[in-house]
Amino acid sequence: MSGYNFAYLDESTKRMIRRAILKAVAIPGHQVPFGSREMPLPYGWGTGGIQVTAAILGPADVLKVIDQGSDDTTNAVSIRAFFRRTAGIATTESTAEASIIQTRHRIPERALREDQILVYQVPIPEPLGRLEPRIAETRRMHAMADYGLMHVKLYEDIARHGHIATSYSYPVMVNGRYLMSPSPIPAFDNPKMDRMPALQLFGAGREKRIYAVPPYTSVKSLDFDDHPFRPIRAPHACELCGSRDTYLDEVLTDDVGGRIFVCSDTDFCAERQAMKEAAE
Amino acid sequence: MNAPLLTARDLTLRFGRIAALDGVDLEIHPGEVVAIVGESGSGKTTLLRVLSGLMRPDGGEVSYLGQDVLGMSEAARRRLMRTEWGFVHQNPRDGLRMAVSAGGNIGERLMATGARHYGNIREQASHWLTRVEIDPARMDEVPAKFSGGMQQRLQIARTLVTLPKLVFMDEPTGGLDVSVQARLLDLIRALVADLGLAVLIVTHDIAAARLLAHRMLVMRHGVVVESGLTDRVLDDPQHPYTQLLVSSVLAA
Q1: Residue of A142, A224, A229 best to disrupt the B interface, most CBs of B under 10 A
Q2: A85 and A138 co-located in one domain
Q3: Domain boundaries of chain B, sorted by first residue
């Protein structure tokens, strides 16, 4: 597309973002400030993720974008189209074929590889923000690894609900040092982050923060000895592919209470359906 | 006599033209309760903030068990603050997390120092609620639902749960009515004796000081004008300002 630099952002902006990414990779889980740019989509639609993707994209990359696990929702379709037009790169809906996967609120069910990068769109990077409103104070808490407050939140969950009721954006410790918000992925996906072979990058556009988890880094969900972390999923099988170990969406089918559970990861579900059909 | 817990030498601090602290020396030994009395603006609270490392003086030194408090890193000071030290604020809202349940408030210091067993934290919280005379059945209520006196007692429980060696108290009975004050003072006195705490208490209430403190410092315009055993200072005041202060206490 003429009139635009490759992948929309100009080269010096990309360099600035890459420097932030390098720093973030060097200090796993630490939030690095960066000069977030205005993007041609509103805050909350993935401005952070899209800038990280633009900064790391090369002409040979194959991009997959998912929104809540789905390849065919507005956000995913628009961001794929955006990079097809501004970078002329190939896009895909297949997790296995992608070299970069930009995601909102899910980690693909298929295990990722060393040659892949997962880019998360992050609305609220600060895990302590709800508990301590002063940003200067939360930064000090990160600097001193003073994280007792996060356990107070989990304590309150158990005291009120009898179990840890945080089901998404479940706080994790990265490399035994930094407390990190995994972005609003379901707690079900948290274990996938631990020692993942792929590089994980997190971009928050409005909050102007980038953070990262390098390949094979330990990521542990916070919990109590007598209330261990449990990944939660709906206790059903996928209506379409029959999977019993994937994260499910509940879909209403009519206005008289009809509902089905289907895989939230559309690519994984479609693959399994195809395999089932081939077997029959 | 054993070595002092906290020692301050020649503390000075000026706010513009006003001397908030002017050559203040102080020592507090393990298990000792020291009261700092004086009128509003005499530098009592400033002294407490400087001693606890919340504020830097212009000159002088503070040492805690041989460690230089003013020179230590913020990380080390915060560690002291959540383990061996405690701070009880005048307004319980400053010391409590109002949106967190009573149990969570008490558990915070435990969790900050590495407690990771929910059941044990609950047990400790319940034990401490009982000690400060709050019904453990109210453990899951937020402090906003408690009366002022209960909030203050909860703040004390939350501070003492890690069994600190030294507790700073800034007007702990301020803003409470007289009968509640009396109960709170009684409670503080019992806990201090039980746990062998050293307490540095700032108050303008001479009667509270007499009830709690072993020793007493009288401050005026940033200067310690008189110090000594509480009964000696109150029964035989030497400095004219102390005489004025003692004679202006209303007898009921």
Answers
A1: A224
A2: yes
A3: 1-84+164-252, 97-163
Interacting residues of A154 by C-beta distance below 8 A, sequence separation 6+: A164, A166, A222, A223, A224, A227
Per-residue pLDDT of chain A (280 residues; tens, 9 = 90+): 678 899 999 999 999 999 999 999 999 999 999 999 999 999 989 999 999 999 999 999 999 999 999 999 999 999 999 999 999 999 999 999 999 999 999 999 999 999 999 999 999 999 998 888 899 999 999 999 989 899 999 999 999 999 998 899 999 999 999 999 999 999 999 999 999 999 999 999 999 999 999 999 999 999 999 999 999 899 999 999 999 999 999 999 999 999 999 999 999 999 999 999 998 8
| Cα A209 from Cα B22, distance rounded (Å) | 46
Structural domain of A242: 233-280
Burial profile A59-91: b = 16 or more Cβ within 10 angstroms, e = fewer: eebebbbbbbbbbeeebbebbbebbeebbebeb
Q: Which of A148, A160, A223 sits opposite B112 (nearest CB)?
A: A148
The pTM is what? 0.87
What is the β-pairing status of strands A62-67 and A32-33? Answer: unpaired
Q: Does domain B1-84+164-252 have CATH number 3.40.50.300?
A: yes
Same domain, A120 and A181: yes
Look at residue B189 and give its three-state secondary structure.
helix
Q: Per-residue DSSP letters for chain A?
A: -TTSBTTBS-HHHHHHHHHHHHHHHHSTTPPEE--PPP-SS-TTSSHHHHHHHHHH--TT-EEEEEETTBSSSHHHHHHHHHHHHHH--EE-S-TTT-SEEEEES---SSPP-TT-EEEEE-S---TTTTT---HHHHHHHHHTT--HHHHHHHHHHHHHHSS----BS--EEETTTEEE---S-BGGGHHHHTT-SSEEEEEETTTTEEEEE-TT--EEE--BTTB-------SS--TTT--SSS-EEEEE-SSSS-EEEEES-HHHHHHHHHHHHHH-
Q: Does A158 touch chain B (CB under 8 A)?
A: yes
* B205-227: pLDDT as tens digits: 888 888 899 999 999 999 999 99
Q: Is A238 a catalytic residue?
A: yes
- For residue B229, the SS3 value is strand
| A227–chain B Cβ distance below 8 A for any pair | yes
Residues A216 and A250 grouped into a single domain:
no
